[in-house]
Amino acid sequence: MQEIQIGLLGFGTIGTGVAKLLMNNSALIEEKLGTRLVLKRIADLDITTDRGISLPAGMLTTNVDEVLTDPEIAIVIELIGGYDPAKRFVLRAIEHGKHIVTANKALLAVHGEEIYAAAARQGVEVLFEAAVGGGIPVLSAIKGNMAANNFATVFGILNGTCNYILTRMTQEGADFGAVLKNAQELGYAEADPTFDIEGVDTAHKLSLLLSLCFGTRVDFDHIHTEGISAISAIDVNFARDFGYKIKLLAIGKRDGDRIEARVHPTMIPVNYPLADVDGVFNAIRLSGDFVGPVMFYGRGAGMDPTASAIVGDLMDIARNILAGIGRRTAPLGYLEGRVKTLGIKPMGEIVSKYCLRFSTLDKPGVLAKIAGSLGRHGISIESMIQKGRSAGETVPIVIMTHEAQEKDVRAALAEIDDLDFIREKSNLIRIEDNLE
């Protein structure tokens, strides 16, 4: 029986999961493919730590060339993460005619165009289902069963760490810092959680979703990115009072020849399906012109779900190898040369509803002056809450606006923050209550 040899770069948590899945479910995979997927070599800097899996002698190596240049290895899985040396290794593997499977969203968000072009020249595949949503099969669905749709919007809760933190803050009224510390103790957050809590990881994933949904190149640096570190328990509580939950939301919208591309804390109505996505779970909601709204939900990270997506990609490539065909679908779902460069709408032009929180001295005339500043910039008030009245002390005032342009809201807040009764910089959270 024909065998397809595989090489693995990176033997951390996910790499271990891939090795376990290939070994434990080898019979099932063979039944579905009619061939064996054989993990021939694993390269990692650390080949002595016990990963809880028994491997054949000689499979582990610290020499990456034993994977990249081995003529028997047809597919290379890259699980190193980050930009370098992952980029160099992937490009070298492609030069040697090897197909690529990766979960490295950061690499593809920043260097994807170069990698896709190199793969096209060599006639090899680059698949990356695990890069967005872990085990959720959203990328293959966009490129496959939903490929005939024009997509209008894509919304995503794409980072389990942030969603876990916001869920705990919502359910328990806890402060951000305490929940983050607990998430680190439980292994849900890294020792350095910056990429997660500041929205960078989510923006990497949004970059890939934008490219697949809208057929556009995306300059990652142009995606507006905010994290959740400034969200406080008081924000979560006020959101609840207004009938909303706060989620770190990835937002992509088609607007003619431009797109909106932004990641930030967002208030969404409690009766929306995305609002029910709690804990470490992820969800992606798409809207196509024929399929309508579709939502994908599942575990967005972790050893087993991510390994599932990676091995699914391996099996797709294996089917092509067995059929003697290749590159039936380009990495982004669009033919080479047909990927556009749509402009990204500046944040100042975004139109949204807003939740504005002010920390003020409680004295006569405060509300009138805040409302006056908002009115001068064309911003109308939908509703307002003020709690904790105590003359002469600082109190929060929270205002919900009707739709307004971001630049006008920013100008109004700058004006308000200069008023003598404002005690802290005003806080802004955008609202999405039309996710069509």
UniProtKB/TrEMBL annotation:
E.C. number: 1.1.1.3
Residue span(s) of domain ACT: 355-430
CDD domains: ACT_HSDH-Hom
Record organism: Geomobilimonas luticola
Source taxonomy: Bacteria, Pseudomonadati, Thermodesulfobacteriota, Desulfuromonadia, Geobacterales
Catalytic activity field: L-homoserine + NADP(+) = L-aspartate 4-semialdehyde + NADPH + H(+)
InterPro entries in the record: ACT-like_dom_sf, ACT_dom, Asp/hSer_DH_NAD-bd, HDH, HDH_cat, HDH_CS, NAD(P)-bd_dom_sf
UniProt pathway annotation: Amino-acid biosynthesis; L-methionine biosynthesis via de novo pathway; L-homoserine from L-aspartate: step 3/3; Amino-acid biosynthesis; L-threonine biosynthesis; L-threonine from L-aspartate: step 3/5
Keyword set, alphabetical order: Amino-acid biosynthesis, Methionine biosynthesis, NADP, Oxidoreductase, Threonine biosynthesis
Enzyme class: oxidoreductase
Superkingdom assignment: Bacteria
Family: Belongs to the homoserine dehydrogenase family.
Gene3D superfamilies: 3.30.70.260, Dihydrodipicolinate Reductase, domain 2 (3.30.360.10), NAD(P)-binding Rossmann-like Domain (3.40.50.720)
Protein name as it appears in the record: Homoserine dehydrogenase
